[in-house]
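Researcher: First entry.
Model:
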Amino acid sequence: MKILKNRLIMMFILFTFAFMVIIIRLAVISNSDILAQTASMQNKYTLKIAEERGNIYDRNFNKLVNVQENYCAVIMPAENNITQTATEFNRDKNILSKLQSRKPFIIDIENPFLNIPNTAVFKTYRRYTENQQAAHLLGYLNAEHTSGITGIEKAYDDFLVQNKNESHISFPVDGKGQMVRGEIKLIESEENKAGVVLTIDYGIQAIVERIGAETIKKGAIVISDPYSGEIIACASFPSFAPNDLFESVNDVDNTPMINRAFYPFNVGSTFKIPIAAAALEANISQKHTYNCTGKIEINDLTFRCHNRAGHGVLDMKKAMKESCNTYFVSLASAVKSGKVQQTAYDFGYGKSTRFGGDLRSASGYLPSLQELSLPGELANFSFGQGKLLATPIQVNAALCAILNDGKYITPKLIKGTTLDGERYESDVKDIAPITCVKKSTAKTIKEFLIYSVAERAKEVGPNVKVGGKTGTAQTGKFGKDKKEEYTAWFSGFFPAKKPAYAVTVLIENGESGNRVAYPVFSRLADEIVIYEKLNKK
């Protein structure tokens, strides 16, 4: 009995010792990296630091998006940083709520030097800059920044999403989702250079947007290469901030969300270019004369010239310079309406331009043959009035056809897509040029346009000659002062001998093309010539 009792006591002692060893071992494990590593294998909490859609480049592979540096902080709530974090962010309710959850969270910050324990700061990039270039062309994203709503962002949405960059940070957490000791991992995608390559030039686009913002309240500027049809710069005014759309969307007076470069307007006297071309093609001599008395009667309808006293006897060249309405009414009536309408169509009027995906400009309105069979409609049409509507893109493309020996080239905005940021592959089908008029006709019209602005060409600068045509279009709209509003145009080119740039300036509610649109063109030409010289050195 005594032996049994001793055995029981010994077993109790051994059991107690073994139990204590287990307790001690569990305590050691619970405070070691082993448990943390095990937990990290079982539970991870991942935060997305940044997601960048594919890039959008200019013609020289300069990035137009993903260039503005931004900073974010990953905050890991702990006893040693909760109070300091709350203070640093002015006890923001959203921050306080996240701190109380004890789960790591991410927040955008302005100052990258954030001195808070258990905090990591990372550099990211905002999609758009504060004064984003080419905003109307690029478009903008939805509120979640997951898909494009307008512009290139929408037209190439699938490609830009498929070629995105992501970076994450991963934490080990316990069953409550609270961080535990263990390895913190930063997971970054390799630098992604894939993107859409546009035809625009970053430097010239910057000149256009600066001068336009200083001189145009509402309007547009388009600059193209006359021989390729590529759009070198394109801007609409006023612009908008893609990062903050609320104010722009609600600005009903200035409607900054409208891309006026793609929007149709009354054309005015810039349309005298295809009218003169149609006449020359119909074998009417440039020496054809007409005596402008200040008005002309067409079927009991009176059409007046802007010079109410009349210009007197003019030939075609002088009529273009003086922008004589009555001369062009007389000229159009001497050409069959079918020839006039077909020539305008060949110059791109009445056609929508598709740039890629579903990105396109408006078609405007080209009156039908039936409409132009009415003498009054044809008369209005002859100097760009009546039902005719066209976009700045169309007006500029028509000018390019004159400079390109009479061959119309469909405007291009997109070169293609790139995967390496160095070479692009075109995904836009080239459309064969259309011969609008003979080379000799185009040459004659070009000479008209140089002659038209010869007296003011010195305003541009001593080293560059220019050509072009003004336009002042009636709109039928009246302002608060009950005066009719006019659309002011200038469509011109430089240098005159071998034009490198075709430029169209549109100003809504402008006094006249001569007084407000031409000076904008003059500044643009002057600064672009200087820009070219600086970049050749």
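Researcher: Second entry.
Model:
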Amino acid sequence: MQYLPRVSGPVETRGVRLAELLAALSLGIDLGFGQPMEHVLRQCLIALRLAEQVGLDDADRATAYYTSLLLNVGCHTDAYEQAKWFGDDIALKSAKFDHEPKSLGDLVASVRLIGAGSPPLGRVRAGLELARNVTSVTNMIAMHARLASDLADQLGLPDEVGDALAGSYEQWDGKGLPGERSGEAVPYASRIALLAEYLEVAHRRGGTTEAVAVATRRAGKMFDPTLASCVRADPDRIFDALGGGDTWATVIDAEPSRTRRLDGPRFESALTAIADFVDLKSPFTLGHGRAVAAIAASAGQHAGLGADDVALVRRAALVQGFGRLGVSNAIWDKPGPLTVGEWERVRMQPYLTGRMLHQSGELAPLGDLAIACRERLDGSGYPRGLPGSAISFPARILGAADAYQAMRERRPHREALAPGEAARQLHAEVRAGRLDGDAVDAVLAADGRRPPRRRAGPAGLTAREVEVLVLVAQGLSNREIAEQLVISPKTAGNHVEHIYTKIGAGNRAAAGLFAVRHGLLPDDRRSFPSP
């Protein structure tokens, strides 16, 4: 059996550069905003040039560097809600740069998207629901920064990066979100990253003239006037050769201060943290990456793979969902049949994952394996329609583990399948010549050895509160929770309020992240712990 290529030398001794992992993730952030790949990388270069122009030391430049790479990483965490209200979360975010913030044009553009893709009555209902939840929407946007800060902490970045990300939507005039800081109280890295983000788009669309005009027009309002004056004073220093050469290599080589490398355990912890974050995009995929990783690694051991290949499969399982960021939740969360065009977007997910990872020599082997996750032995898979002879055994294990876990999870068009039914469907795929029988047997054997999920206890949650938390994490409203648990909507709302207070969450995404990290999601996602 031909195996996929691996990095030369064990990752555990060499370590993977954190900058490369964040740069790869940034390409997914680009896709989720409807921007061309390397938008974030270019804004990172602008941020570094601004930092140099104002004379920041290495430590502060490093803070600006990591803040710029992670600036909008939290914006996909409520894509489920964005799509529910506006029809297409990526279309909504891509319009961010088309109008002056909080202008009439910005408001009109947002209103036009409400309920997009729905019939007139559906659009009216979406508008009414949005009006009832306008405060929640504001809080939701503010939570983007908080969740990004949380990810920075999980990745072991300095506290200054987390603080800067927490303030990344604040503005110089105090009219940003959550609106708690203004002027010099906004972290310097936050001010630099915000300006760099808008400058990159303006420069790409209209050149240096447009970029300088944006900096000038919003100086003292959205932007720090001193930073804006740096742009006006020497624009060539900021924008020279911005779009030329190898942007990826330039950004990686520009990492300030000491290069951060992740050894084996820290690398897997970082991959798990990012996988959990990516999976927040939809309540239907919550915890999917880490669950597939556990099954695939155990299956690999059961099938007799060596330690290096088991580690490769586990890590590829954690990254295989990265490309999901580039597909709208209007597709992922659609309850009805997908159109031909929508299916083509779904089939792009593994390809996008590969594109995100292949620029890094150390991450490319994970991309090679992840991109084959949806390939099938009879050539009916995607994105490349590979024949069985071109699909390695580790890739076959990953594909079977991913398929099995997906069957065990609820989807918009069906409930989760019980273990027996999921096993029957996997065996049917083997008989049809699509999945490998040995891989399927290893996956089913591995699933039987999984430890039971934790059901109660963290943060002082009661068993009933865990029950409600799981439903919140899965995207159910208070009314739907009440129907599920046969309680009143008011009681459900009180439970949700108490849960948020105990776990320090403010929305579905934060609650879902807590549930995943504490092992609270039931193995069979149709059933929930008893009170």
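Model: Note on the second entry: The radius of gyration is 23 Å.
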